[in-house]
Every structure is written in structure tokens, then in C-alpha cells.
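quick one before i forget lol
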Amino acid sequence: MTRFYTNMLLELVEDGMLGKDDVIMACVKYMSEDDVKDMMQCNEFIEPEEDEPDVDEATEWADFDPDC
């Protein structure tokens, strides 16, 4: 399986058509909190056993960008 859209996105960044910061923000806004945590653990940005802060669903939704 080729990664057509992944490669396209990376090429747009490499060609200067999209900014890295814009792509990062779009990705993390699109991903669920669990996806972000998993990506951070897989890339060893955080340790798997790090404690999570207590966040209720209302707070999580309040932080969500409705324009996304």
C-alpha cells in the first residue's frame, strides 16, 4: 500500500506550500487525545507510564477548536 496522501502532504511541506507549524496544528487538532498520546509514546516523546492529568469530558470539549 502506497501512502499517497502522506507523501503528498510531506512534499507540500518540503516545497514550502504548507508550513510545518500549520501541518502540526492541523494534525493534532484532527487526532483524538488517545491518538496524540499514542503517537507521543511510539516516538518516545514521553514514557508510556507517565501519569495523565485528570481532565473531565466537559473540559476536553471546551479545549476543542470548533472551527476544525
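fyi The chain has one domain: 4-63.
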